[in-house]
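Schema walk-through. Below, the input block comes first and the output block second. Nothing else is stored per chain. Lengths vary across the set, and this one has 191 residues.
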Amino acid sequence: MQFDFKQILSVTLILFSVIDIIGSVPVVIDLRKKAGKIYSGKATLVAGILMITFLFLGQSILGLFGLNLESFAIAGGIIMFIIAIEMILGITLFKYDPEEVDGASIVPIAFPLIAGAGTLTTILTLRVEFATENIIAGIIINLIFVYIVLKTSTWLERKIGASGFGILRRVFGIILLSIAVKLILTNIAGL
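--- output ---
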């Protein structure tokens, strides 16, 4: 087991961009108003279990369908590309049902808001370039940040404001777009 600070930082930033918990704060606040309460710890724990489980079992699932990791990495890069376009342009392509507020800590906060299709695809895609222990470290760092943001979402809403969230979302969108392009090009060469 060998931890690499550069890899951990890269994984952390990639996952931070994909999870986009800062950009999701308005959704979290809206759900908190509808559901009455969001259990930050429960949502974070369930999202973490989903992410780490997919990190280890995702490749076996691919094997059942006869897919290789490079093909999945390209597909993941395309999903990351689409998520980045959403972030940059302020549009929504992936939707969830906001009427389901029962157990809002699990659905839609833990899944699909935190550990959604984009996050799970990205985690499996990261296995192509990064060591497993560094991916786990990046997941844990993101989960700590997610927990803090969920716990302080109403305070953040007052401090940063809607325009501040818009700026942060676009900046991380551009970073994610660049990463997606690199991931696609690298794995196309690998095929």
